[in-house]
Amino acid sequence: MHTPPRALGTPPALLLGLLGRGIALSRTPALHEHEARHHGLACLYLLLDADVLGYGEDDLGEWLRWLPRCGYRGANVTHPFKRAAVRHLHALHPDARILGSVNTVVFGPDGRAVGHNTDAPAFAAVVERELADEPRGRVLLLGAGGAGVAVARALLLCGTRELFVHDLEPARIADLAARLAPHHPEARIRAAGDPRELRGRLDGLVNATPVGMAGHPGLPVDPALLDGLRWVADIVYFPRETALLSEARRRGCRTLDGSGMAVMQAALAFRLWTGREPDVARMRLRFEELEAEVAGRLSGTDEAPIRGGKMACS
C-alpha cells in the first residue's frame, strides 16, 4: 500500500484533491484553481491518481483520514471509489445517502468528513435551465450504474413521472428502483427490456452509459428510436458532440451535452468547500478554454499541459 502524503509545509488557503483512477486528464483542478483566484483564494488542487500512487479500495479509508491531517479542505471522488467512500465518512448528505455514492467530501477543522453527491443536483439544474420549456413526463434512461442512478434522481426531481430504464444488467435497474421509488411515490420506474418498443411514447432520452465517449464509439440505442423525441441528453462531455447527439440533432431533436453538468458539479463543490457563490458563467468559459486546449493537444497543434475529462458522472 502507498502511504498517504504528509503535510506540505504550510498548506494553501484551499488545498483540494481528486481520488480516482485514470484521472490524469481531469479538468477539475484547473477549473477550481481558476475560480478560486477570482475569489482571492490561493488554491492548490492535486490529482491523487490511484494508478500513479498505487492505492486501492482497501486503502481508501486511510486516505480519507490522512487528507484533513495534511491540510486538505476537501476532495472529489470519482471512479472507481464513489460507492466505497461512503463507508469511510462520518456523515452523509441526504442525496449521497439516497444514491449510495459520494463524489464530494468536505473536511471540517476537526477532521470530520461529510460526503455529498452533486451529480443529481447538477444534472437537475442543467435540465431546469436548458429544457425548461420541454416536456419531461416520460423519459428513457440508458444506464443504471452510479451515473444512471444520479440522473434518474435528477429526472424525478424535475418532473418525470414515467421513467423507463434500460441496462444490460437487470439487477442494476432493480437497485435503482429500490433506492429511488420510496422517495418519489408519485412516479413509476419501469425496466425497458427493448427500448424500441417505446418508440413514439417518450418525451426525451438520456444516455448515462460510456457509449459515445472517447474510446467507446458508437450509438447506445437504435437511432430509429430518436424519431419523435423532443429532446436527447448525453452526460458524456469528451467528446461533447457524441454520435448520439449528432444523430438526434439530425432527426430534429433538441440536444443537451454533458459539459453543463460537469461545470455545475464543480460549481456546487466549490460552494461546499468555500461557502462562496461561484460564478457559473465564468467557470463555463474556463471549461471551454480547457476544452480547446484538449482539442489542440490531441490534434498536435498545442504542446501545453492539459487536463480533460470524459463523462460528467465519472
UniProtKB/TrEMBL annotation:
HAMAP family recorded: Shikimate_DH_AroE
Protein name: Shikimate dehydrogenase (NADP(+))
Any GO BP annotation: aromatic amino acid family biosynthetic process
Gene that specifies this protein: aroE
Presence of keyword Mitochondrion: no
Pfam families on file: SDH_C (PF18317), Shikimate_dh_N (PF08501)
Domain Shikimate dehydrogenase substrate binding N-terminal: 18-105
Family from the record: Belongs to the shikimate dehydrogenase family.
Pathway(s): Metabolic intermediate biosynthesis; chorismate biosynthesis; chorismate from D-erythrose 4-phosphate and phosphoenolpyruvate: step 4/7
UniProt organism field: uncultured Alphaproteobacteria bacterium
Active site: K82 (proton acceptor)
Keyword Amino-acid biosynthesis among UniProt keywords: yes
Role of this protein: Involved in the biosynthesis of the chorismate, which leads to the biosynthesis of aromatic amino acids. Catalyzes the reversible NADPH linked reduction of 3-dehydroshikimate (DHSA) to yield shikimate (SA).
Domain SDH C-terminal: 258-284
Positions bound to shikimate: S26, R27, T28, T78, N103, D119, Y237, Q265
